[in-house]
Specification:
The chain has 146 residues and is α/β, with parallel strands linked by helices. It is 16% helix and 32% strand. It has a four-stranded mixed sheet with strand order 2-1-4-7, with no helix packed on it. Strands 3-9-8 form a three-stranded mixed sheet, with no helix packed on it. Strand 5 (99-102) and strand 6 (107-110) form a beta hairpin.
Length: 146
């Protein structure tokens, strides 16, 4: 019986600890059996619906939701040099996306549950701008800056 105590009990404790830690990590609703749809040449890739241009002197307002699926909609197309006001509403407590982080713009803003939060910035370079949660952007979204 000493073998059981010295070897098996620590292995069981380690396994239990690993299961608890992984259950508390960042989650994202995914279905491994579901195969992602392949974009065809006839169907354009999905992007956020076009939003009306901002009134002169006012930033363009974009509503984003943080759901079990992540930041939605994504991707969103922005214009270089055009001021943007994001209105983010986190509607779930089931992911680690409890803030929005945009390192290039020194943005790290908490997103309280079910409360709209405004974040303003002006994209200053073109290309793909990835934003996300503070856990290494495990949950993320994309701005395509033209």
């Amino acid at each position: 019986m000493p073998f059981f105590s010295k070897i098996i009990k620590p292995l069981l404790a380690l396994t239990l600890a690993a299961a608890v830690v992984s259950a508390q990590g960042c989650t994202k609703d995914s279905k491994p059996d579901a195969k992602p749809a392949e974009p065809s040449a006839a169907a354009p890739t999905a992007t956020a619906p076009a939003q009306p241009a901002a009134k002169p002197g006012e930033p363009r307002t974009i509503a984003l939701s943080v759901t079990e699926k992540g930041y939605e909609p994504s991707p969103v197309t922005l214009k270089q040099g055009e001021p943007v006001k994001l209105v983010l509403t986190r509607t779930t407590d089931q992911t680690c996306a409890t803030e929005i982080v945009l390192e290039d713009y020194n943005i790290n803003t908490p997103l309280p549950l079910n409360q709209p939060v405004e974040v303003a910035f002006t994209p200053n370079k073109t290309g793909k701008l990835v934003y996300g949660c503070a856990m290494g952007k495990m949950i993320s979204g994309v701005f395509m800056v033209e």
